[in-house]
Amino acid sequence: MSSQLPTRGHEYLQAQVRDFAERHVVPEIPAMEQSGSIQHGLSRAIAAQGWIGVTIPRRYGGMGMDHTAKTVIIEELSRVSGAMGAMVQASQLGVAGLVHFGNPLQKQTWLPRIARGEVLPTIAVTEPDSGGHVLGMAATAVRDGGDYVLNGTKCHVGNSEVGDLHKVVVRTGDGSRGLSAFLVEATRPGCRLGPHRRAMGLHGFGFGHISFEDCRVPAANLLGNEGDGLAVALSSSLLYGRPNLGAVALGIHQALVEATVAYAARLYRYGRPLYEIPVVKARIGEMRSRLDIARLALYDAVSRLDQGLPCDSQLINAKLVNAEYAVDSARAALEVHGAAGLFCDLDVERLVRDAFHILAPAGTSDIQRLRLAEDTLGIGKGEWSQRFGAPVDVQNLDAELDAEPAF
Ligand SMILES: Cc1cc2nc3c(=O)[nH]c(=O)nc-3n(C[C@H](O)[C@H](O)[C@H](O)COP(=O)(O)OP(=O)(O)OC[C@H]3O[C@@H](n4cnc5c(N)ncnc54)[C@H](O)[C@@H]3O)c2cc1C
Q1: How confident is the model at residue 384 (pLDDT cuts 50, 70, 90)?
Q2: pLDDT tens for residues 61-102?
Q3: Half-sphere exposure at residue 154, Cβ-oriented, CA atoms within 13 angstroms
């Protein structure tokens, strides 16, 4: 059931991540599930492998690899722990804005430290009163001499508790060109972390509140220009967030299939393995079909991205198909497990809960369908993927930024 990876380098990386995940992450899972607490030590240990910096160019100390490699890392970690896959994807999302919008000084200051795993970045866009409607955000930054002063609250920020450097998108003016992005160190006075809320799944990963109360940041921390905030948010979400979340879902999906196959082989009914019952066999066949389609959609989309081809709709579909199919297979897995699947000592219970966490981030399925419909109807707002790798020309983004309603 493994994907056909394009190079031996990708295959080597896959084996390396799988080995690390099985040796260092698997043993931590019972404690993660029981405590539900944030995995500071494990998150740092994973970051120290250099995987947050997989797409950071080598001249900044990164691995200098492509989106396919990023996908392999997230999928393999998520196969063992959706929480740790989500942790890595969230900080890789934080890297995106720096790579595409950072000035030379910002890149030189932060990218080598991120690549070494010393700094975990985040992206903070969502707010309690606007959700996926990015332009509805209310947090502000006001220029005051050589600084900007930030006020407002962000919610569901991936890695909120372990993040050292928040990429925060706030209002500096009106309308779609009135958003700006800032790099805010977690230690800055006025930057406050909300209390940890235990979620249904992804135990060990946090996506909490961060508030800014008269939080003063130097103007040098502005990412790109004033007005680039929506472009920073949307390009990070589309080019990194959607395939990344697709990869988390794919890893969980793979684990669901493996757990279900193992259970159906070891449980005996009517004197034979459970999988001998035709309905059970058919369910496993359906799970396999969904898994293969989801994997093809994801690796095709990131391969197009790596080749510089326009692929916004493929990235959107990859997120949609992977999130939806993982949830569909979670239900099938539970059904095959019968009552046993409801108990916390079997992996399937955790995998089912984790699968549901991938529906909302980087755009709900409703939003992905909306974007696909717009593309099909010829009323889409342009291709972010075509600008990947090239300096972003913000002057030409007006069409995309105008009237973009949601993540
Ligand atoms: C695990 C996880 C990690 C996350 N990580 C981050 C992060 O790192 N940074 C960050 O900023 N945010 C993050 N988020 C937040 C995520 O981006 C939001 O959950 C998402 O944008 C949707 O916002 P919402 O949950 O408030 O739902 P809402 O926007 O309130 O939507 C509620 C419902 O209304 C529907 N809806 C809303 N608008 C429309 C529309 N225009 N058309 C059709 N239907 C619509 C939605 O589909 C949904 O069903 C994360 C969320 C999760 C669960």
Answers
A1: confident
A2: 999 999 999 999 999 999 999 999 999 999 999 899 999 999
A3: 28
pLDDT exceeds cutoff 60 at 398 = no
Regarding beta strands 179-185 and 191-193, do their DSSP bridges make them parallel or antiparallel, or are they unpaired?
unpaired
Q: How many residues does the chain have?
A: 407
- For residue 358, the one-letter residue type is I
The CA-based angle 305-309-314, given to 5 degrees, is 60
Give, for ligand 1, the residue of 93, 130, 134, 156 to mutate: max count of ligand atoms closer than 8 Å to Cβ. 156
pLDDT at 64: 96
Biggest CA-to-CA distance, the chain: 79
> Phi and psi for 199 in degrees, rounded to 5?
-100, 175
Q: Taking CA 37 as the corner, what is the angle to CA 26 and CA 169, rounded to the nearest 5 degrees?
A: 105
Q: What is the percentage of the chain residues whose pLDDT exceeds 90?
A: 91
The finding on whether 359 has its CB within 6 A of some atom of ligand 1 is no
Q: Name the residue of 126, 165, 182, 205 to mutate for ligand 1: max ligand atoms within 8 A of Cβ.
A: 126
**pLDDT tops 90 at residue 340:** yes
Q: Is the CB of 131 under 6 A from ligand 1?
A: yes
Asked if residue 160 lies in contact with residue 210, where contact means CB atoms within 8 angstroms, the answer is: yes
What is the arithmetic mean of pLDDT over 139-152? 98
Pairing of strands 207-218, 147-158: antiparallel
Dump the DSSP string for 292-315. HHHHHHHHHHHHHHHTT---HHHH
Tokens 């940890």 — which residue?
A: 196
Q: What is the C-alpha separation between 199 and 197, in angstroms, rounded?
A: 6
What's the mean pLDDT when you consider all of the chain?
93
In eight-state DSSP terms, residue 40 is H
pTM beyond 0.90: the answer is yes
